[in-house]
Structures are given as C-alpha cells and as structure tokens.
Amino acid sequence: MIQRLNSGRRILTYPAVHPCEAIAPETLLISLIALTHSICSYKSKCIASNKRNALEAIRQIGVIRVFLEEIQAGLPGLPDSTVLSFSELHLAFQKVQYLLEDCTRDDARLWMLMNSERVANQFRVLIRTMATALDVLPLDGIHVAVEVKEQVELVMRQARRVRFQVDPEDKRVVEAVKKVLIGFEKRIDPDRSELERVLDHVGIRRWSRCEMEVRFLESEIGFENLREVGLLSSLKGLLCYCRCVMFGSVDGLPGPRPEPSNRSEVVSCLNLEDFRCPISLEIMTDPVTIRTGHSYDRSSIMKWFRAGKPICPKTGEKMKSMEVVPNLALKRLIQQYCNENGIPFGDSGRRNRDIGRSTVAGSSAAEGAMKMVAEFLCASVGTGSNKAAYEIRLLSKTSIFNRSCLVEAGVVPHLLKLLASADSEAQENAVAGLLNLSKHSKGKAVIVENGGVDLVVDVLKEGLKVEACQHAAGTLFYLASIEEYRILIGENPRAIPALRELIKNGSDRGKKNALVAIFGLLTHPANHTRVLAAGVVPLLFEILTSLDSEVLVTDSLAILATLAEKPEGAVAISRCKALDSIVGILNSSTSRAAKEFCVSLLLALCANGGHNVVALLVKSPSLMACLYSQLSEGTSRASKRASSLIKVLHEFHETRSSGPVTRVLPQERFVHVR
Ligand SMILES: *[C@@H]1O[C@H](CO)[C@@H](O)[C@H](O)[C@H]1NC(C)=O
Ligand SMILES: *[C@@H]1O[C@H](CO)[C@@H](O)[C@H](O)[C@H]1NC(C)=O
Ligand SMILES: *[C@@H]1O[C@H](CO)[C@@H](O)[C@H](O)[C@H]1NC(C)=O
Ligand SMILES: *[C@@H]1O[C@H](CO)[C@@H](O)[C@H](O)[C@H]1NC(C)=O
Ligand SMILES: *[C@@H]1O[C@H](CO)[C@@H](O)[C@H](O)[C@H]1NC(C)=O
Ligand SMILES: *[C@@H]1O[C@H](CO)[C@@H](O)[C@H](O)[C@H]1NC(C)=O
Fold this sequence. Notes:
The chain is mainly alpha-helical. The protein has helices at residues 25-40, 51-73, 82-103, 109-114, 116-135, 146-161, 168-185, 192-201, 207-222, 226-245, 298-306, 328-340, 364-382, 386-398, 400-409, 411-418, 424-437, 441-449, 452-462, 466-479, 483-491, 495-505, 508-522, 527-533, 536-545, 550-563, 567-575, 579-588, 592-608, 611-619, 623-633, 636-657, and strands spanning 287-289, 295-297, 325-326. It has a three-stranded antiparallel sheet. A hairpin with a 5-residue loop joins β1 (287-289) and β2. Bound molecules: 2-acetamido-2-deoxy-beta-D-glucopyranose (NAG) (6 copies). GO terms for molecular function: ligase activity; ubiquitin protein ligase activity. InterPro entries: ARM-like, ARM-type_fold, ARM_PUB, Armadillo, PUB12-19-like_N, RING-Ubox_PUB, Ubox_domain, Znf_RING/FYVE/PHD.
C-alpha cells in the first residue's frame, strides 16, 4: 500500500494519495507502522539543512510508532471510527516521508538550504496535521496501556508547541550565499574562505559532489518553473564557479549525465538548437546565410531586412549587401532530423524549454559568475591545465550564452595550442571543447583565424585517441557551414583523405561525423572532385551493403545523392554497379529519409549517368512498385521525384518501342527539382 509513486516526483512536492475509504482499520494500521519505520530510517542519513527540524519530526513520529505498535499488539477488533484518523495520519506521513527524502537528497543540498524557510514551514504544517489527526482518534475505543496514551497526548501537545524555526546557522549561510550572488552581479570575486564555509555547511567537499548539484539545478531549470529560474540559474552559476575554481582536481564523474530529452540518434552530433532560426527561434524551414556568415530562416531575415534593419541580427554588423544564399547543407540536415524524429518539416514543433538554446544567462548573477569562470579558465588553460580544458569542455556543452562567454574570454587559441599536446586526455578535451565552440559563429571565426583548420586536420589524421579524431571531424563539419571555411578545408590536401580514413576505420560515431563533414564540404561544388578523387564513393557503398546502422546508411545516401547531381559524380557512382543495392534499400528501408535520398539519387543518376542507368533500372522488378508507393507514402519531395522518375522510365519504354534511341534526358534536368 505504500507503493511509491515517486519516480519523476519534483522536489518539494508531496503527491500523497488518500487510502481508499473501504479499507479495514487493521490494514491501514499495518501500512502506517511500515511508514513510520521508513520515516525513522532517515535519522541516520545526512541532512544538510533543517537538520534539527527533521530530527524533531522523526522523533515525534517515533513516539507515535510505539503507540501504533501497542495498538497492533493489543486486542483485535479496531472500531471503524479509527479509519478517519488513520487515513489523515497516513496522508501526513506520506508527505513527511517525501519531505525527508528531499532533505536527504545528495544532489540538492544547496537548493534545500536556500528553501530552508519553506521546508521548516512544511514540517510545522505536517506535524500539526498529524496532531489534528490524532485528536480525532477515538482513544476510548482502543485498548492500549495508559502510559502509552499519555505519551501520545504529550506528543500532540508538543506538536502544537514546537515552532520548527529555521536553523540560525542555515539562515546565516543563506545570507552568505545571497551576498556572493550579489557580488557576481557586480563581478566581484567572492571571498574564498566564505565560499569554503558555504560548501562545508552543505557538505560539498569534492568536485563530483559539486557537479551533482550543478546537474540537479540544471534539471530543475529544465522545468517550466519561471518564477524560480532566476535563482536556480544564479545558484548554478555559483556552483559552477566553485567547481572550476575551488576544486583542483576532477574526482570522477557522478555517473552519466541524464539526457535532457530523447534526442535524435540521427544527427546525434548535432543539436536541435543549431537548427533554430536566431530570430524566430523556430526550426528553420528555408535556412539562408547572410554576408556575416550567420544563417537565418529566409522569411525571418527578409522581414527583418524589410523592416529597414540592414544589420546582422546576431553580430549587429552593418550589412553592405542584403544578399542571402540558401544553406542547402543545413536544410538537408534539418529535413533529415525532422523526418527521423517524426517532426513535420516546416512545422515549428513544440516550443519546450531548452536551456541549451538560450542566448542569455538565467540571471545577472549567473551571467557574472559565468564570465568570471570563463576568465579564470582562460588563464588556467593558458598554462596547459588539462582540468581547465575539461571544464571548458563541460561548459561548452551547455548553452549559446556560455559558449559565447568562453569565446569572448579568449579560450580558443589556448585550446588550439593544446591540440598538439602529447597528453591524450588534454588533446581530447581540447578538441571536444573546440567542437562545441565551433557551433558559435565567432568561435568558428577565431578557430580559423588562429590557423585552426590545419591543427584540427592534424588531430583528425593523427589524434591520440579515436574520440579526438571523431571530435575533429565534427569540428570540421561545423566549420564547413561557412562558405569561406569550406574552401579552406577543401584546400588542405589532407582533410578529405583523413575524413575518408575515418569513414573506413572509425567507430560508428566517427563514421557519422566524417560523413556529415563531407556532406558539408560538398556544398562547395569544387570539392566534389576531391571527394571523388579520395575514393569515398566505394566506401559509401560498403556502408550501404554492410549491416551498418540505418543512420549511416542515410548519411551515405545523402552524400551519394549530392554527388550524383554532377556528371562526374554520377559516372563514379555508376561505376560501382550498385544500382541494385539502392533499389533494395528503397524497397526495404524503414527510414523515410533514406527512401527519399534513394529516389533523388536514382533520378540524378538517370539524368547525369546516361542511358545505361535508365536501361538497367527499367529491368528492376521491384522498382516501379516502390516508386508508386513513394507517391503516396513518401515525403512530398520524395513523391515529386518518384513521379519524375516514373515518367523517365515510361519515356524510355516509349522511345525504345518507337524508333532510334536518343538521349531522353537533357543533362542536369532534374538537378534542382525541389
Ligand atoms: C528514448 O528512445 C528509446 C528508443 O527509441 C526508448 O527505448 C527510450 O525509452 C526513450 N527514452 C525516453 C526517456 O523517452
Ligand atoms: C550556462 O547558460 C545557461 C543559460 O544561458 C545558464 O542557465 C547557466 O547557468 C550557464 N552556466 C552554466 C555553468 O551552465
Ligand atoms: C557538445 O555539446 C552537446 C550538447 O550541446 C553534447 O551533447 C556533446 O556531447 C558535446 N560534444 C562534445 C564532444 O563534448
Ligand atoms: C584502424 O583502427 C585501428 C583501431 O581502431 C587501428 O589499430 C588501425 O591502425 C587503424 N588502421 C588504419 C589503416 O588506420
Ligand atoms: C575545394 O574547393 C575550393 C574552393 O573552390 C578549391 O580551392 C579546392 O581546390 C577544392 N578542392 C578540390 C579541387 O577538390
Ligand atoms: C522487397 O521487400 C520485400 C519485403 O520487404 C521482399 O519480400 C522483396 O523480396 C524485396 N524485393 C527486392 C527486389 O528486394
């Protein structure tokens, strides 16, 4: 009966359930006693704040436990009139138990401390509720020793008297914390010994403990609890400052960081935030890049320009030209992401609170703390500190705002220097940090300005750990979203061959990153030749025919479909004699995106690969059926392309039966079909 409905309970909420009305008093009594045992067991746990109140509540409930056990041991047959009182008691005990659970949580100590007044009040309310419940217990109808009855009456009197005040020491530490937060707002470094006292009071004495608290606050911020986001963010800033500044070494991670949501596997090295238009904050449907290199949704930026603002919304830079260039690589990725995640493309999706996307800190204290942390880390990574590189890596994951603080503080050149480190950990942390900083537009620029392209390619080729190579590929992918940098990467003779190596010999994650990086580079037409020359195409077919994950298959198809849009690509693909495997995937894949790429690829091959391709395709027994099913089941683009392809195949039949074979298709006729 005391099954816990606890999974997913928010802190400081008490979802107690009322026992059912028809319950027998004896059953209820058993359950009550079990609850009191459970409550008393909290006595031995660490209670960081409100300790006195918690122990007092436990003590009183312990007395009631003795009383309840006496009743149980007494004569059988409890009057039904006890049910009312027992039920109320039960409800109160459940809540006390929840409260104690929160008081003893080992990742929410600072938060519980800051809420100590609320918690003390809650104890008072619950203990008085308990006394009221006992008041209505018909003591006369119950057989227990007189002394026990007297003891319970004593507890009831005490319950009404005990004030459950906030512990003075808790109060003092809360004030100290508030002072530090105000200091952060003014960018004043907190007094270390004061911080030490605060941490000591709540028992945060190691890096990993501190990180647990940070994670807890992060998950709370994730809830739509707008009233408290400011304080939560400030405290998180404080703890992050402590984590970076007060603890000299990382003593192991407290378990895997919980995934905030069921993020896509598909574009797993990407983040939904990168798909949102910085103006509308919606997922972009038609991303375009403006002169400053930033991408926006076409409709948003056009509206912005029409409103007479000739400046880049993100950088504030004045624009000489309002020319926009479609960012096709990004668009494809977004489409793929949406397809795989069942988000209708072009539909904004739901707006949920996604901290990662925020471009501002949650509060001005958090902002100050973050800037000071960034400066501290910059100085310390400048001395080659691996711990600082690790902290930067962690921070670079969190949000646009935090990335921008790190970039502004100047960490990028130091991280680039660390890439040459002989310490494999330091190298990996540095390149992982760079990966996430390369999502930031200024971050990209600083990386490139400091010769980062070559340094990252070096890691890609010769990283000390496979993870480092993977992160390097991911970094190139982000850099490749800017035309100029795409060119730079393409010009490095080792870049594309090294990506090919990773596709050949990497882990799934490595392959994935290399594939998307190549996909990004292909947006620059001149680089098609280099990708072909590096011998990437046969590797892609290896992925298609091996039992590799569907994600990799889809990415490979995306690259093939892009390459096939040019004659030399189509020729190279045709040479692999792999039309059957493409048709096979179209027939059996469960991924809508993969099917769409198959149709695009086949259509482009027909247009650019010449007559042979069409002649081979018409012989395929299952192709027509697959294409017809795409007409109704495919994405709208897949269905349009399937229809074009059906037409091509029909035309081929007609020309063959009515005279000499001529070239049916003008080259590139279908290349830009949308
Ligand atoms: C995430 O997705 C996986 C597989 O699709 C599923 O097994 C898992 O339960 C999901 N997790 C959450 C938290 O939704
Ligand atoms: C990072 O940024 C987010 C939102 O901008 C903020 O809530 C958080 O406190 C920042 N700091 C850390 C250490 O993550
Ligand atoms: C980059 O940040 C994302 C979240 O924004 C995270 O999931 C990913 O692990 C980070 N990458 C690296 C290499 O640390
Ligand atoms: C392939 O990877 C393995 C380890 O993952 C490594 O030992 C081997 O040298 C690599 N081969 C090539 C050709 O890079
Ligand atoms: C990639 O594109 C750039 C820009 O045109 C070019 O300079 C570079 O040589 C290309 N790589 C090749 C030829 O594959
Ligand atoms: C198409 O798929 C079905 C089942 O998914 C299978 O039975 C059939 O053999 C496949 N046809 C070809 C040509 O691969």
